[in-house]
Amino acid sequence: MYEHDVIVVGAGGAGLRAAVAADEAGADVALVSKLHPVRSHTGAAEGGINAALQEGDDWELHAYDTMKGSDYLGDAPAVETLAQDAPEDTMRLEHWGMPFSREEDGRVSQRPFGGLSYPRTTYAGAETGHHLLHTMYEQVVKRGIQVYDEWYVMDLATTDEDDPNDRECHGVVAYDVQSGQIEGFKANQGVVLATGGPGQAFDHTTNAVSCTGDGHAMAYRAGAPLEDMEFIQFHPTSLPSTGVLISEGVRGEGGILYNSEGERFMFEHGYANNSGELASRDVVARAELTEVQEGRGVNDEYVHLDMRHLGEERILDRLENILHLAEDFEGVDGLVEPMPVKPGQHYAMGGIEVDENGQTCIDGLYAAGECACVSVHGGNRLGGNALPELIVFGKRAGRHAAGDDLGEPQIKTGYGDDVEDETETELPVQPGSAGLESSGGVAADGGVAADAEGILQRKVETARERVDRLMDKDDGVQHAEIRAKLQQAMTDYVNVFRTEEGVKKALRLIRECREEYQDVYVDDPSRTFNTDLQQTIETRNLIDVAETIALGALVRNEFRGAHWRQENQNRDDENWLKHTLVSWDDGAPSIFYRPVILEGESKTYEPKERSY
Amino acid sequence: MSTQQQQPETQEAPEDPEMKGAESPVDEKEKEDGMIDQTAADASELEGKTVLIKVFRYDPEVEGKQEPRFDDFHVPFEKGMTVLDAVMYARDTYDSSLTFRHSCRQAVCGSDAFFVNGKQRLGCKTQIADLEHPVRIEPLPHQEVVKDLVVDMDHFYDQMHTVEPYFQDEDTPNPADLEEQRQSPENREKIKMSSRCIWCGACMSSCNIAAGDNNYLGPAAINKAYKFAMDDREGEAIKEHRLRILEQEHGVWRCQTQFSCTEVCPKDIPLTEHIQELKREAVKKNLKFW
């Protein structure tokens, strides 16, 4: 058994930042990650970091834009914290040596992004995430923080009180990918989940293959609710063949979208008469698909993104990476021809419910980054707001887990007096547990609080038994088959456009995946670097997370942000200024709601029509 | 004991490890009808056909895989198919034990560097249509093989860590006052290419010197040091400290300018030039010449 004060799971931007913050707060920190830190998906972020750095801009404008962009589903205390902390935290990256793009006077450059009232996106070429990831990893190396790389965290060690609000998290169970050895990691102060997004629930995604919602699923089964999972962002510009991302920076620099008839459809078809290509992402994604559906798509599949008019010099200076991506993955030279683009799953606005200090309703369990929902992005994330979220809330979660007092949070978590129960939704199938493999994630201690080590030891044994069972079984279904079916169901029915019947179909298919999973087996008999085993465990996580996405999409019968519903194409503020929460309750999901907090530090954000 | 003795009927035949790869169609007829010949073909010629990939297999634990071998997989070609797509197809369709690292599949995580047709390349950005057939896929040379295409990267990471790969400023101002350090666009441009390294290890694997001298810092680590040493924000004293690390016995002077690192770098970093430039800097500072 390993033992540290703070254990950070996941070593992308949020995890690395949390580890550095916890280290600075005096804790003995360990990072446990299924990848080596520099392989994390943060490295694929391209656009930039929103921070009000310049005169003429201020954090309040950033907060306002973010609230509006969220379609009034962001919580004001979280949004204001993001906008207030982002400038200092961005400057700290600069002082840690991050190679930002520069102006003539040597100051960091900023550029316009969708939905922003001021060009406040600080960037490093079109590879901002790569530089952020490496800069943060350098700080981890500098501080000598212990890294357990290629250790896959399978489960959390939490107590099993009936009310998740009374539970405590004492550590994690992980297996060494290289040797197959399963071990407990005891956290004396706290566990920070920073495991990234669940993009692999969809088959056309900009996300890495490693983005399998592990943190979501572990926290969910341990009793922390998942919040606003129906809000999945589809990025308007991903390459059709692979899903590789073409940065919003292209449109920020002046790139233009055309349909097959050469029309600049964002204006000519009235999707966004003021902002055009720089309307927020949900608006542009729907516009593109509408063009394709109405027969004005290229090859009935995509539209064109043109940056030729920007000129070679500017493209090479600011968007060089995009040229390489278009060439390598689509065989298109962006200097002489337009690039094919279509919407692709990109980001989960929802996640593990946390307060503005990064804490979940379970004592000692924190989450930050894409796996968490604070919530700053609400119904739609503005481009350039993911990276400041990583550094701001990664830092806060790390500090808090290490014992720093960040003050009383204004955001509540868990099931409490302020929530509203959902009782009326008719479901097409019984969601949740389908048998042994799907049993809960809470240590069964019969209600008697065992000591931390005892709880961890029991979880380690359960994990070893689970792995033995998967390895010993010599016939059945393979995870790849189930995963493909799940991804297809989500892409077919829980995509940009959603109907009640479609989402119900998805729930039925997810149920089938869950039942097939009862018969899953691992064919590779080796304990050495068994990716078959790892992916089998990940697939179970994807099933749970996909189900929460579909459940949220079913109950929210309105159109808000990225969540479009055919039956009701209006935002319904009267009934839906509230977060959807799904919690794993004794083997089955239960749904409840919590009101959005629109009261900020000095003002209340009044919902307005979101026009661009 | 008589050799005539019958096997009990209930005994199962021992599993033939070769069978797994063989689940993909390998018969001669296929070869004649649909398969690619041993010549390079352009994408249009490949449409509707299968591609033969020969993948290196090894597992220290599993009987029958302890002796390294190549498995053949026939993968249906699709336009735009990369080496990574092909091995993923083979794994998901024919043999789930086929093991390799991969994550972002867009040339930024650096985890899928393989030795493809005798050259270090990133699987995800290498188009099958650009390669000679059959395509031979092996783990990176000069690194210990953990299993199949997975190599032990520890030595690579250790060398990266040797050069103190983190920013060191002489006088840290308080970032709370929101003043960034200034850096000219020209200076930023100077370090730009060096900052693109994704730690894939292709350069190290291609380097003859690194293969013969385990202590040689290697092109990736030296390039990492270059990124900091050439960044004006760090200041002269720290630059000198960095050059002292680099001019040691197993540092920049080991490089014999064979350009193999530069040739294989998937991010087009001029590694050899960076090493040469650091040699010149070391000379300018009158540091030791090994």
TrEMBL record, chain A:
SUPFAM superfamilies recorded: FAD/NAD(P)-binding domain (SSF51905), Succinate dehydrogenase/fumarate reductase flavoprotein C-terminal domain (SSF46977), Succinate dehydrogenase/fumarate reductase flavoprotein, catalytic domain (SSF56425)
Family statement: Belongs to the FAD-dependent oxidoreductase 2 family. FRD/SDH subfamily.
UniProt entry keywords in alphabetical sequence: Electron transport, FAD, Flavoprotein, Membrane, Oxidoreductase, Transport
Cofactor entry: FAD
Membrane topology: Peripheral membrane protein
GO CC annotation, single: membrane
Domain FAD-dependent oxidoreductase 2 FAD-binding: 5-387
Domain of life: Archaea
Location of region: Disordered: 400-440
Annotated protein name in UniProt: succinate dehydrogenase
Fumarate reductase/succinate dehydrogenase flavoprotein-like C-terminal domain mapped to chain residues: 483-612
Catalytic center residues: R281
Keyword Cytoplasm: no
Subcellular location: Membrane
GO molecular function, one term: succinate dehydrogenase (quinone) activity
Pfam families: FAD_binding_2 (PF00890), Succ_DH_flav_C (PF02910)
EC number: 1.3.5.1
Entry annotated with the keyword Membrane: yes
Organism of this sequence: Haloterrigena alkaliphila
TrEMBL record, chain B:
CDD domains named in the record: fer2
Segments of skewed composition (Low complexity): 1-11
Pfam entry (one): Fer4_8
Cofactor: [4Fe-4S] cluster; [2Fe-2S] cluster; [3Fe-4S] cluster
Domain (4Fe-4S ferredoxin-type): residue spans on this chain: 194-269
Cell membrane as UniProt keyword: no
Keyword 4Fe-4S attached: yes
InterPro entries the UniProt entry points to: 2Fe-2S_ferredoxin-like_sf, 2Fe-2S_ferredoxin-type, 4Fe4S_Fe-S-bd, Beta-grasp_dom_sf, Helical_ferredxn, SDH/FRD_Iron-Sulfur, Succ_DH/fum_Rdtase_Fe-S, Succ_DH/fum_Rdtase_N
Keywords, ordered alphabetically: 2Fe-2S, 4Fe-4S, Iron, Iron-sulfur, Metal-binding, Oxidoreductase
NCBIfam families cross-referenced by the UniProt entry: dhsB, PRK05950.1
Protein name: Succinate dehydrogenase/fumarate reductase iron-sulfur subunit
Species, as recorded: Haloterrigena alkaliphila
